[in-house]
Design brief:
Elements lengths: L22 E4 L2 E4 L17 E4 L2 E4 H8 L30
Antiparallel strand pairs: 1-2, 3-4
């Protein structure tokens, strides 16, 4: 009987096999450590600042900018809400209809 290697899960970002030594878990999927980055600002993520939207990963700040209420996500407090939606980080989507 020929040797058959066990099936390894594929990283949703790069599509390559993820081995146990390099896996990061989020959104029910396994990612490489190098692929475990925010989809907007490309900051490295860890278990304390990772959030998901569908299959996309974001840091908590970018998630608030992209999907939170308008003006939230910058940690400034309610007295000084910013209307910045992250254009300087590559966000080109608008929430207005």
């Amino acid at each position: 009987m020929p040797f058959k290697a066990p099936e390894c899960p594929k990283c949703p970002k790069c599509g390559k096999s993820v081995y146990a030594a390099e896996e990061m878990l989020a959104a029910g999927q396994k990612y490489h450590k190098g692929c475990f980055k925010c989809g907007l600002c490309h900051k490295r993520l860890d278990s304390t600042n990772a959030t998901e939207h569908g299959t996309d990963l974001f840091c908590k700040q970018c998630y608030g900018r992209k999907f939170g209420p308008r003006g939230v996500g910058f940690g400034q407090g309610a007295g000084s809400l910013s209307m910045d939606v992250g254009e300087h980080l590559g966000n080109r989507e608008t929430l207005m209809s």
